[in-house]
């Protein structure tokens, strides 16, 4: 692939540097992953040339018969993964999937509830610097102060008080599973719509390893590039009514048809123009991989790795927010280590360990400094690392965090990181 960049030396240099960075770093950002060469090839394919505004069979442009096949396949595979009634694979990103859903279900000024940003929610769940906090009245629900876990009574009290039109479940930095049936009960009691943004845990939900929001939520969004291990992008899904164990009367028959049409038209022409057909084909490739038997082993290993890493950090006297992890990530509270999230992120970066600073619940530091870091296992699990490597990684992280200014320690950890990475080759086809 790189040979085609040889006529542009500046770009070639950048591309080579990034491959090398990915190969030689412990990638522990919970929202990142490494796509397969097949996904990469589809994302770099000639489908990037095609304008295909509209939907399969109903495009605004000629010459769409081939890209229609790619989009149909992506939709079919995604519906199969989640046993969904409806899927839209066009959102360019998770944020755009959320924007399309909020703009479908709410009018400007309407009230909705989402997990507070500083308790693990996402910008699009009501942050004042995002459209979701600017167009709507967003109320954040906090975690329980003692358990640092979801508290359904707190949610219900806020619903009672604010009478929102919609409740959003799902998060960017929450390490426990969600009981969507409890949210459904609350939504039904107060006649509220229910949505899940499963961007983070979607890959594990796909394989039945975490609770599935589709039977309970009126609509579900996801990104495709995190645990689903696909190209950067978003999707919107609606589950099958007959699966719904609560017998709720939300999306049935014609109403489902109507809702799917309004979601489609909110994505395009509502907020987007031409779909990224190369990315949609790459989504189809990734969904094919998720459907394979081997993906289950991968998803199981992500969880096992996160548990071992979290347990080992606890043994090393780290506080894990909410006491542990059920999924692919953990939030490490650094208050007892006398270092901010920002300083820890910087020191770890020097040792080729990539994490992100993250607010912890009831954080007293600003979002630019923070008291914690978020650590996730999807990317290193893709490289083939298992429990044994997670123990080593916890030790390496600890060495840096207790010696953030000791250049010798950092240099030694960096050598160990590069050595460990070399045992788990990545993109060797590209170098
Ligand atoms: C829960 C959640 N939703 C949505 C998004 C947005 O995805 P994107 O960055 O593709 O817009 C993220 C991204 O991290 C996320 O964590």
Outline of this structure?
The protein has 431 residues and is an alpha/beta fold.
Tell me what you see in this structure.
The chain is an alpha/beta fold. The chain folds into 2 domains: 42-291, 3-Layer(aba) Sandwich (Aspartate Aminotransferase, domain 2), CATH 3.40.640; 297-430, Alpha-Beta Complex (Aspartate Aminotransferase, domain 1), CATH 3.90.1150. 43% of the residues lie in helices and 13% in strands. It has helices at residues 9-24, 37-43, 65-82, 94-105, 131-134, 152-162, 180-189, 202-206, 253-271, 277-291, 293-315, 341-350, 378-382, 387-402, 407-422; strands at 26-27, 54-55, 58-59, 84-88, 111-115, 137-141, 166-169, 193-197, 219-223, 234-239, 319-320, 329-333, 353-354, 356-358, 372-376. Strands 4-10-9-8-7-5-6 form a 7-stranded mixed beta sheet, sandwiched between helices. The chain has a 4-stranded antiparallel beta sheet with strand order 11-12-15-14, with helices on one face. A two-stranded parallel ribbon has the order 1-13. Helix 2 packs antiparallel against helix 10 and helix 6 (152-162) packs parallel to helix 7 (180-189). The longest helix is centred in the C-terminal third of the chain and has 23 residues, at 293-315. The N and C termini lie close together (10 Å). Bound molecules: pyridoxal-5'-phosphate. Pyridoxal-5'-phosphate (PLP) is lined by residues 31, 93-95, 98, 122, 124, 170-172, 197, 199-200, 223, 234.
């Amino acid at each position: 692939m790189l040979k085609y960049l040889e006529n542009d030396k500046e770009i070639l240099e950048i591309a080579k540097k990034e491959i090398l960075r990915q190969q030689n770093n412990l990638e522990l950002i919970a929202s990142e992953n490494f796509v397969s060469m097949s996904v990469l090839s589809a994302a770099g394919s000639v489908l990037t040339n095609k304008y295909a505004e509209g939907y399969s069979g109903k495009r605004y442009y000629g010459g769409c018969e081939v890209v229609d096949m790619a989009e149909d396949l992506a939709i079919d595979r995604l519906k199969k993964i989640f046993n969904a009634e409806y899927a839209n694979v066009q959102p360019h990103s998770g944020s755009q999937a959320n924007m399309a859903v909020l703009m479908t279900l709410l009018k400007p000024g309407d009230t909705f509830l989402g997990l507070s940003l500083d308790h693990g929610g996402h910008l699009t769940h009501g942050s004042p610097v995002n459209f979701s906090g600017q167009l709507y009245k967003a109320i954040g629900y906090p975690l329980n102060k003692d358990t640092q876990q979801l508290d359904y009574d707190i949610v219900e009290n806020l619903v009672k008080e604010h009478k929102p039109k919609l409740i959003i479940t799902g998060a960017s930095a929450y390490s426990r599973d969600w009981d969507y049936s409890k949210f459904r009960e609350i939504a039904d009691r107060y006649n509220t719509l229910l949505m899940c943004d499963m961007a983070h845990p979607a890959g594990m939900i796909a394989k039945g390893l975490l609770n599935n929001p589709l039977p309970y939520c009126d609509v579900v969004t996801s990104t495709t590039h995190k645990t689903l291990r696909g190209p950067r992008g978003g999707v919107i899904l609606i589950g099958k009514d007959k699966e719904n164990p609560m017998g709720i009367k939300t999306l049935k028959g014609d109403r489902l048809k109507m809702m799917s049409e309004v979601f489609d038209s909110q994505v395009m022409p509502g907020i987007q123009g031409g779909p990224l057909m190369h990315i949609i084909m790459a989504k189809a490739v990734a969904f094919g991989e998720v459907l394979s038997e081997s993906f289950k082993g991968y998803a199981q290993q992500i969880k096992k790795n996160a548990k071992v890493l979290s347990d080992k950090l606890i043994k090393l006297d780290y506080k894990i927010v909410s006491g542990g992890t059920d999924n692919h990530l953990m939030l490490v509270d650094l208050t007892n280590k006398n270092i901010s999230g920002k300083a820890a992120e910087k020191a770890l970066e020097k040792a080729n360990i990539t994490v992100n600073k993250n607010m912890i619940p009831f954080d007293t530091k600003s979002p630019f400094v923070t008291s914690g870091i978020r650590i996730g296992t999807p990317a290193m699990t893709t490289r083939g690392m298992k429990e044994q490597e997670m123990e080593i990684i916890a030790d390496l992280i600890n060495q840096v965090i207790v010696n953030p200014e000791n250049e010798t320690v950092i240099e030694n950890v960096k050598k160990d990181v590069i050595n460990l990475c070399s045992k788990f080759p990545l993109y060797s086809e590209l170098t």
